[in-house]
């Protein structure tokens, strides 16, 4: 059973005798997040639910905590103010910027800022404590679906050979692994006057920067022009190979996270939740299938070598 906000508040010795207010806050598809004001100073509490990692939907909680600390050192993530290992939970710096939405990440003028935020994270002074491979993740999520008898789209398995072909190409000569977030939907970006920051390191690990960019493109449903803008902004100039790799990883992101939402729908849906996990899975699967059967896929595979 996951801990509550009050459990976490009681575990921070530095707050003893201080005024702790609980303020409204939205967000958190898996873990519990809360906006606190401690003696007038805003902070964010993130209470980690062990069931998320146990279901294969996040990295082990100790790894998430360690990577959150490294992300903070890079300047991309919020500062870590307290670690409550017993629960576990994190108290983070409150970022007063604006949480981005789907339409925001698609604006051409903002896309280079997303690339800059990724470069900042990827240049962290220390590596993350674990590795992340989207192909291994896909296989693990599919195994979880099979083990629990969860519903998966009827033609999903028909496309496994194409995904395996992507794996052969994208892992043949990969760039050096970098500290990657791996779950960059719009709501994990916060826009501040000094730039864009990144929150929520539930799926973080050392990985391929091409997947990081492809994941952004998948979550934002980027067309080829937006995707090329993102890849070229990240590399600092025209980069046809990175652009091709990013497009292939865009497809692999949707292909893999289709299963993430199938699992969440089947194992972790909570009474009263208004989020449509199955609808999200269906949308990702539709986009993945379209990309994996696109006539231009062969050309992308050639460019990505």
Automatic annotation (TrEMBL):
- Which species? Crossiella cryophila
Entry's Gene Ontology BP terms:
phosphatidylethanolamine biosynthetic process
GO CC term (a single one)? cytoplasm
MF terms in GO: ethanolamine kinase activity
- For this UniProt record, give its keywords in alphabetical order, as a comma-separated list: Kinase, Transferase
What domain of life does the native source organism fall in? Bacteria
Question: Which residues fall in a coiled-coil region?
Answer: none
Q: Which InterPro entries does the UniProt entry name for this protein?
A: Aminoglycoside_PTrfase, Kinase-like_dom_sf
Q: Which PANTHER family match?
A: CHOLINE/ETHANOALAMINE KINASE, ETHANOLAMINE KINASE
State whether keyword Transferase applies: yes
Q: What is this protein called?
A: Aminoglycoside phosphotransferase (APT) family kinase protein
Q: Which residues form the Aminoglycoside phosphotransferase domain?
A: 43-238
């Amino acid at each position: 059973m996951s801990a509550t906000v009050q459990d976490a508040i009681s575990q921070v010795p530095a707050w003893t005798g201080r005024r702790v207010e609980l303020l409204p806050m939205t967000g958190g598809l898996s873990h519990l997040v809360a906006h606190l004001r401690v003696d007038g100073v805003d902070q964010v509490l993130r209470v980690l639910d062990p069931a998320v990692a146990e279901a294969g939907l996040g990295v082990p909680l100790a790894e998430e905590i360690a990577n959150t600390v490294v992300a903070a050192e890079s300047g991309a993530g919020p500062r870590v103010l307290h670690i409550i290992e017993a629960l576990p939970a994190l108290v983070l710096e409150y970022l007063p910027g604006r949480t981005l939405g789907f339409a925001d990440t698609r604006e051409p003028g903002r896309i280079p800022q997303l690339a800059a935020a990724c470069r900042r994270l990827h240049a962290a002074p220390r590596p993350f404590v674990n590795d992340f491979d989207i192909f291994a993740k896909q296989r693990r999520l599919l195994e979880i679906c099979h083990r629990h008898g969860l519903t998966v789209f009827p033609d999903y398995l028909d496309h496994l050979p194409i995904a395996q072909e992507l794996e052969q190409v994208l892992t043949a000569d990969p760039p050096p692994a970098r500290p990657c977030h791996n779950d960059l939907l719009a709501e994990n970006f916060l826009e501040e006057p000094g730039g864009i920051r990144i929150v929520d390191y539930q799926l973080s690990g050392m990985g391929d920067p091409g997947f990081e960019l492809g994941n952004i493109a998948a979550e934002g449903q980027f067309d080829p022009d937006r995707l090329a803008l993102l890849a070229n902004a990240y590399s600092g100039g025209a980069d046809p190979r990175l652009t091709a790799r990013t497009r292939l990883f865009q497809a692999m992101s949707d292909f893999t996270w289709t299963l993430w939402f199938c699992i969440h729908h089947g194992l972790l849906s909570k009474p009263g939740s208004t989020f449509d996990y199955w609808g999200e899975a269906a949308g990702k699967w539709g986009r993945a299938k379209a990309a994996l059967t696109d006539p231009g896929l062969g050309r992308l595979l050639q460019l990505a070598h």
